[in-house]
Design a protein that fits this description.
Blueprint (H helix, E strand, L loop, with lengths): L3 E4 L8 H15 L4 E3 L6 E5 L3 H11 L8 E3 L15 H10 L4 E6 L6 H4 L4 E5 L4 H10 L3 E2 L14 H8 L5 E4 L10 E4 L6 E4 L5 H8 L3 E2 L28 E6 L2 H17 L4 E5 L11 E4 L6 H17 L4 E5 L7 H11 L4 E3 L1
Parallel strand pairs: 1-8, 2-8, 4-6, 5-9, 10-11, 12-15, 12-16, 13-14, 13-15
Antiparallel strand pairs: 2-3, 3-7, 4-7, 5-6, 9-10
Helix pairs in contact: 1-5, 9-10
Length: 354
């Protein structure tokens, strides 16, 4: 199979060629194939969420465990009714507040959604993306689109079409190239099937924002530390190794001066052994690291820059042959919760707290 890459404007002001390219990707999905496309979070790998065979193809292309649920993407509220059995009050409030946008809600599924899409669960994850290409693609496909991140399972998620091509060339039919994504980390996931909503994955819709809308929100224990081997994941990203570079990665947390000194000491030790070392820092500290491959992930004062650059930096270290990566830690308030969730998983929870 030859994967076709089709250029498309992500501005929403679509040319005739843009529409033709989006329609071609929509036709692929309607016919049971797979098409990758940009969203505001990361690039997604799309297939018909109501087609069990299409979901199987998604798992196969990614090398993804089949009990790891997929997210069904819709373009409007009317498209949700056929795929869920009910919309609880908390779900309605959150949808009104944050859709279209980077939030996924877990509902009880209807019979039309195959278990191959839900990872065998009686629930279905649903998202309404705000990206104009994603919106147009879903409308033209005429079906909800199951779309995990468009990467090999376990690798850093793709924030550019080139990342998708690197991982999935020859495994899928089409990639819609809409340029770099905006946010850079996957959607917030909230389970609204119980009386109190539960956060299953942090994202750009932060815990503080959720609580402003619905009051009490629980945090699932599975996202606060290494998951147990017998965990049955309710949502993507909960059980398996995710976002990981090829290198052995360690996060160093503590007072800034101590962190810088410790990373420099560990880097010097590995470099003396002949190892290639990567260092993840920020604009504020990048000049404090004299050795290793030093990459700023963004500005501490603007966490959105850190989220935006996170996966691209991890992939760049892969490309530059890093064998060990040492990363500064970040506060876990607001968007920092999502950033640290991804970094901890990328590091396999190897954390050095000073």
């Amino acid at each position: 199979m030859i994967t076709k890459v089709l250029q498309v404007s992500d501005s929403g002001n679509f040319s005739g060629e843009d529409i033709r390219n989006i329609q071609e990707a929509a036709d692929v999905i309607r016919s049971g194939g797979l098409a990758a496309f940009p969203t505001e979070t990361v690039y997604g790998l799309g297939g018909n969420a109501l087609d069990a065979d299409a979901s199987r193809k998604i798992y196969a292309a990614k090398g993804r465990p089949s009990d790891n649920p997929l997210i069904a993407h819709v373009s409007c509220m009317e498209e949700i009714t056929p795929i869920v059995s009910e919309i609880p009050e908390a779900g309605r409030k959150l949808a009104e507040a944050f859709w279209p946008g980077p939030m996924t809600l877990i509902f009880q599924k209807s019979e039309v959604v195959p278990y191959q899409t839900t990872g065998g669960l009686e629930t279905v994850a649903v998202r309404m993306p705000s990206d104009p290409v994603a919106q147009e693609l879903i409308r033209r496909a005429g079906v909800p689109i199951a779309a995990p991140s468009a990467n090999t399972s376990g690798r850093p998620s793709p924030t550019r079409a080139g990342h998708v091509y690197e991982d999935l060339n020859g495994k899928i039919e089409v990639i819609l190239d809409g340029g770099p994504v905006g946010i850079g980390v996957e959607s917030t996931i909230v389970d609204v099937t119980e009386d109190v909503p539960t956060l299953l994955r942090p994202g750009a819709v932060t815990m503080e924002m959720l609580r402003e809308v619905v009051g009490e929100v629980r945090i699932d224990p599975a996202i606060q530390g290494p998951p147990s081997k017998d965990l049955k994941p309710k949502a993507p990203g909960m059980k398996y190794r995710h976002y990981a570079p090829k290198a052995d990665m360690t996060i160093v947390e503590g007072e800034a001066e101590q962190v810088i000194a410790k990373i420099n000491a560990m880097a010097a030790e590995k470099i003396a052994e002949g190892k290639t070392v990567g260092i993840i820092c920020t604009d504020e500290t990048k000049d404090r690291y004299p050795r290793g491959i030093v990459e700023s992930i963004g500005e501490r004062a603007r966490k959105e820059t850190i989220a935006h650059n996170l996966y691209a930096v991890l992939r760049d270290f892969d490309g530059r042959g890093a064998e060990f990566i040492f990363s500064e830690g970040f506060s876990e308030d607001h968007l920092g919760q999502a950033i640290m969730n991804r970094l901890k998983k990328a590091a396999g929870y190897h954390i050095l707290n000073l």
